[in-house]
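Team,

Forwarding the record for the chain on the shared tracking sheet. I've put the sequence and predicted structure together so nobody has to dig through attachments.
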Amino acid sequence: MTIAITGASGQLGHLVIEKLKQKVASSDIIALVRTPEKSKDLGVALRQADYTAPASLEAALTNVDTLLLISSSEVGQRTAQHRNVIEAAKKTGVKHIVYTSLLHADTSPLSLAPEHVETEAMLKDSGLTYTILRNGWYTENYTASIPGALAGGAFIGSAGKGRIASAPRADYAEAAVAVLTGNGHEGKTYELAGDIAWTLDDLAAEISKQTGRDIPYKNLPETDYASALQGVGLPEGLAAALASWDTDAGKDALFHDGKELSRLIGRPTTTLSEAVAAVIKQ
């Protein structure tokens, strides 16, 4: 069985490739990337593929049995890009598509949700077998801000007391590999999230514990948080989006307690403490 991965040079895709090589022969894995010359370190066959170029996608998906469609990073263009991939998969005889969607996509208030819902609908209408992995938040989305919190003396955000059931990318990559190499996942939608939810107060307390410093959590109004993000160099649109997602997190948009992720990977998900330690030790 030949397995192809879109966006294979990205952070999640790279992890999937590495974990997949532990389960199947490297010769059965195809990395679909925009610039193959930059991805030789993946150690598998490389095929050039561009979400916006249907001809490249058809060539890239020839003789592929199973496809992991990692959602495009270009918010606002995802639906059209994913449609190109799905249409190419239909034309080239791909048998099964595994798609990385968003936690509770059909009910989520996050502005990211609609394009995922549209992609899920396209998959269900495609005639292909599919599995939908509704990934929760990556813990790295928050732990990446630890250096800034240490420099500024506080962790800032707009999530209030919202519960965040996150997991590191590596856990989600492991789940994708379990589905790609396992049986009985056809037609299923999995809500994937960390086993133990936490708040930004919990994160600040964990940072304080591990560094021996007093790093409180400072909750800001959404507009103030967006301004702070702009102040550290983020573009206005991205800063506004990040702040809005944090506000949604404050309404438990990133919470789920079904533990499907740990069942898929066969172990407890990585804890917040472990994720913080990985950053502190760098």
